C-alpha cells in the first residue's frame, strides 16, 4: 500500500511538472548558509551576487545574519543554527536545495563533486568526495558509481561514461560493475587515454577528463576536489569547479550540496548553479530509480561476493624462481589470490610492477596460474 501511495504521489508530481512546463518554468529556490566560511560572511554574499548576475534562472535564499543585499533571507545566529534551519526549510519544501559547508551525512550517503579538468577544460564528475556509501571499500565504490551515474543523468548527461580510478579496490569495483552490467544494469564504461585503453583510469585521465564520471573512494575524491579547486591559489582559497556536490543515497530525501570552508566566491557561485541543476533534474528521484534498477540486476548478491570470509591456513608450496608477472589483481586481493594458487600447488608471491600490483609465479606455470585465477574470479 505504501508503495502504491508513493507511485500515486510521484505521478501527481509529474503531472504538476508537466502543467508548469506548459506555461512557465518553475524557478528553483536554492538556499545558501552564510556562516562557516573561513573567508567570512562577505565572501558568501559575494558568491550569491555572482550567481545572481551570472545565471539569474534560480532564486537564492540566504540563511545567516540579517543583511540587506537584495536576496530573500532567513535569519540565524550561528552555523549550527543555520544547519538546523536549512534542514527544516528543506523538509517544509520552502527551498529545493541548499549549499552549505561541513555537514555530516549518515552512512549510506556520499557527495558527488564536479571539477573542471586542466588538461581539456572539460567538466568531470568525481564520485565521491565526502561521506561514505558503505563501510566496505569495494561496496562503497560500486555504490559511488551508481550515485555518479544518477547525478550525471540529472544534469543532462543521458548516457555518461564511467571510469574507475586506479586506487585500492579498483579491480574489485570494476569486476562488480562488469557483472552488474552483464545482469542488465546499463553502464557505459570509459576507455583510458593511455595505451592499454581499459576502464581503469590513470592520473592522466584525471587531468584530461576522460570519463564523465570518475569513480573513487571518498577520501581520494576529497583530496582531488581540494587540489583541482585550489591548485592555482596555493590552497587556502578555492576558485575552480563546483564543490563537493550533492549528498546522494539510495533513499536520501534532502538536496544538500557541500562546499569547503576554504571555498571562495567563484566556486560557491558555481556550486549554487550545480545545486539548481540537480534540483531541476530531480536528482534524488533519479538516484532512487538508479539504485532500484541496480538492485533488480542483483546488486546485493554481487556485493556479497566481496564480503571477507574466514581465512584458513594454507600450506605454501616449495619456493621457486618467479619471473612471470600476472597483473590486474587489486592490491587488497593479492594475499587471497596467492592463497588460491598455493591451494593448487603453485608457488606465488605478490609484487608491485610499474602499472600496479602483480602476482609472480614461475614462467613454466604462468598460463596455468592465470587460468586458475580467472576461474576463481580474480580476472
UniProtKB/TrEMBL annotation:
Its EC number is 1.21.4.-. InterPro entries: FA_synthesis, Gly_reductase_pC_asu. SUPFAM superfamilies: Isocitrate/Isopropylmalate dehydrogenase-like. GO terms for molecular function: oxidoreductase activity. It is an enzyme of class 1 (oxidoreductase). Keywords: Oxidoreductase. Pfam families: FA_synthesis (PF02504). NCBIfam families: reduct_C_alpha. This is Glycine/sarcosine/betaine reductase complex component C subunit alpha. It comes from Clostridium lapidicellarium.
